[in-house]
Structures are given as C-alpha cells and as structure tokens.
Amino acid sequence: MKTAAIHTLGCKVNTYDSEAILELLKKDSYNIVEFEEKADVYIVNTCTVTNLGDKKSRQMIRRAKKNNPGAFVIVCGCYAQTASEELEGMPEVDLILGNDDRHRIVEFIEEGMASQTPFNAVKDIMKVREYEELHIDHLSGHERGFIKIQEGCDQFCTYCIIPYARGPVRSRKPENIIEEGKRLIANGNRELVLTGINISAYGKDLKNAGDLAALVEMLDGLDGLERIRLGSLEPSYLTQEVVDRMKGSEKLCDHFHVSLQSGAVQTLKDMKRRYAKEEYALVLERIRMAFPHAGITTDVMVGFPGETEEDFLETMDFVKTMAFSQIHVFKYSPRKGTPAAAMDLQIPEAIKQERSEKLIALGNELKKDFEDRFFGEISEVLVEQEIHDKKNTYQGHTTNYLLLPVSSATDIRGHLVQVRISRDVEGRLIGESL
C-alpha cells in the first residue's frame, strides 16, 4: 500500500489545509503514517511568518529525505509560495506547490513520479480570485472542528509577508461552510472554530453572502452544535452593530482574539495598522459590555523598526490597561519584500529579547488576574484531550478560553462537563467535576 506523511508548521489555517490534503490522499488509497516513519510521499506544509519558520521548514524537508532517500518530497504552504526559487535549489525537493492547486496534489504526485523530474507548480497567487474548495470530514485528534471560511488578506501591514503568500481575499461560499459543519458535527465535533487568514473580511468578495456575523447566525441553527468559536479578528470589523448581532447568537463563545500588534501611537502608524489605540480600546469596551465574562486575547509584536524604549513602555501600559486574558508575544522578524524590512533603525536582537521577556511576564500577570475572576465559579468545559503524564486527567476549554484540567476515571473526551473552577496545591487552575 502507498504511504504518505505530512508535517505542518504555522497556523490553524495550515492545519486545516494539511487535513484536507490528507483526506485527498486517503481517497487515493494512501495509508497515512507518522512523519518520522518511512513513507513513499512526504509533505511539508510550511510557514514563513518569521525567519525561524523558514528555517524549520528547510529542516523538515531535509529530515523527510533522510527518513527515506527514495521518497517523493512535496513542499507547500507560505514558504513555498514566497520562496519557490530558493526551494528549487534544494535537491531534496521533488514538487513545490504553494498555496493554490492543492486539490490537484494526487495528479501532481503521479506526474512527478512518472517523470522523475523536480517540478515547480507555484502560480502567481496575487492573480487568484476564486476560493480553492478543499473539504474535511474529520479533524484527526481534535474534539473541536476547524472550518476554513476564507483565504487571503488585503491589509498589507508593513511587516507582514502573508498577503504576498496567501493572495487577495477569497471567501468560501456559505452553503459549503454549512455542509462541512454538518459533516463535522455528524463525526462528533460539538464546537466549530471558524478560521482563515483574515476572517473579518469574510463575504466582502461575494454577492449576497453576508458578513462574518451573518455566517455565525446561519451556523447557530445547526442541530447538534454546542459552540461556535471565532479565530483572529481585526478590530476595525467589530463595530457596535456587529457586536450587537454577535450577542444575539446562542452558541458563540465569549472569547475574542483581537489583533493589536502594538500599543504605541507611532509604531501603529509605521506598521500601517488601520486603527488608533483609542479605537481599539473602544472595541474592547463594546465586547465587554455585550459579553461580561469574555476572554480577550491578542498578539503583540516587540522590536518593530524604530520602536523606542518610550514606544515599548507605551505598549506595556496599554496592554496592562486593556487587561487581556492572554497575549501572544513575538519578536519582529524582517521579511524580504516587505516595507518594514527596508526601514532604518532595525532593533538589535538582544533588545527584542529583553522586551519580549518583559511583555511575557506582564502577560502572565494578566492571565492570572483573569483566572482569579472566576475562582469558585461554575463553568462548562468541552473536554478535548487526555493529559498523558497524569493518570485519569483530561483537559479542555471553557467558552471564554480558560484551559482546565479535569479528573475522571472514565474517558470524557468530547463531553461537555460542568466544573467548579479552583486551583491545585501549586496554584494552577483546575476544574473540579460536579
């Protein structure tokens, strides 16, 4: 039997794309094995958000060929899309695919194996105008089902390579999203997570499709679905009217990931983020008025070119004032071809590291403050996985994205469990089953 393995780097969109690719291979009678095992075909679904993503992608390409020197190695994803000529110089690579035409992967494998000639199938992603319809019926190892609802981004922030890697905004037809949602629910997923490169832009390229809030309203009516969770949102989308419509959903989780990047006025301008910090603060106020227990998470970048110590302290103050439940901190990484990479006043790595550590420490404080608000409260956890190094212990998330371990003598994965929120002897948050 033919065998294939895949390694996925980067975001949840890549996770979805990889699962869709695996389903195509399964339909062509491939047996899917672990990446460390010997396989006939290896696929590396790459990330290029940072230089580290590029480096890890190259490492996994070499590892694939080391696992089986005779294997057919495919590289797809964002690094493949933006650096296909660089990948042509790697002797380990047999097929470069990029971020389109993934639905033809079986055809490309057959042609490549027959010709024994490396092939670059990457096309100009900026000219792609149609959403590539890929399907999944079940997301392996996940109790939450991820549905990709759109592709591409038109923001063009000065630091970001992703619009060049993913192309313009292409929204998926709502009827296809609904049908996939039904399949995932039928296969046991009780929560659906809507993901994409910029889901706030959903529907803007479709006639009469409605926006993201309209899609949530449609999904609300699916039988057997308990929760809808949103991926990363742009603050400019979250107008009062949109938040009011979302408040009307019976199944939408009170967890909102609202991208920030910086809390400094000048840095936001240099990044070409499309909001002022005052507007961002108003968005969070709207959310909290509509969803009093909301977990609000965000991304913050440190070390953007020209970021002064005063700018960084301004960001620290703003992050503290916004009282996020969790923050993802990352260091600026220059991406070739972006405006920020050519800017003066690039920040030394040592300063980036120092600022990163300070912001992470603040994030940990804010996370604990948020958790403390719910100590002793009763909440509901969707149990997602077993904790393998702890006997009879599982874990899952509340609607507002608190991650809670839950003890049980029976397998409760996929169950919604009522718990009282507490802490263990080491101070870590836990859920006590009721």
TrEMBL record:
Which E.C. number(s) belong to this protein?
Answer: 2.8.4.5
Q: List the cofactors.
A: [4Fe-4S] cluster
Q: Sorted alphabetically, which Pfam families does this protein's record hold?
A: Radical_SAM (PF04055), UPF0004 (PF00919)
UniProt keyword Iron present: yes
Q: Domain Radical SAM core: where?
A: 139-369
One Gene Ontology molecular-function label: metal ion binding
Q: What reaction is this protein's catalytic activity?
A: N(6)-L-threonylcarbamoyladenosine(37) in tRNA + (sulfur carrier)-SH + AH2 + 2 S-adenosyl-L-methionine = 2-methylsulfanyl-N(6)-L-threonylcarbamoyladenosine(37) in tRNA + (sulfur carrier)-H + 5'-deoxyadenosine + L-methionine + A + S-adenosyl-L-homocysteine + 2 H(+)
Q: What does this protein do?
A: Catalyzes the methylthiolation of N6-threonylcarbamoyladenosine (t(6)A), leading to the formation of 2-methylthio-N6-threonylcarbamoyladenosine (ms(2)t(6)A) at position 37 in tRNAs that read codons beginning with adenine.
Name of the gene: mtaB
Q: Which PROSITE patterns does this chain map to?
A: MTTASE_N, MTTASE_RADICAL, RADICAL_SAM, TRAM
Keyword field contains Disulfide bond: no
- All residue ranges annotated as the MTTase N-terminal domain in the record: 2-114
Q: What is this protein called?
A: Threonylcarbamoyladenosine tRNA methylthiotransferase MtaB
Spell out the PANTHER family in the cross-references.
Answer: RADICAL SAM PROTEINS (PTHR11918), THREONYLCARBAMOYLADENOSINE TRNA METHYLTHIOTRANSFERASE (PTHR11918:SF45)
What's the source species for this entry? Alkalibacter rhizosphaerae
The top EC class, named as a word, is: transferase
Q: Which family does it belong to?
A: Belongs to the methylthiotransferase family. MtaB subfamily.
Keywords, alphabetical: 4Fe-4S, Cytoplasm, Iron, Iron-sulfur, Metal-binding, S-adenosyl-L-methionine, Transferase, tRNA processing
Q: Which InterPro entries match?
A: Elp3/MiaA/NifB-like_rSAM, Methylthiotransferase, Methylthiotransferase_CS, Methylthiotransferase_N, Methylthiotransferase_N_sf, MiaB-like_bact, rSAM, rSAM_horseshoe
Cross-referenced CDD domains, in alphabetical order? Answer: Radical_SAM
User: Which SUPFAM superfamilies does the entry link to?
Assistant: Radical SAM enzymes
Identify the residues that the record assigns to the TRAM domain, covering every copy: 372-434
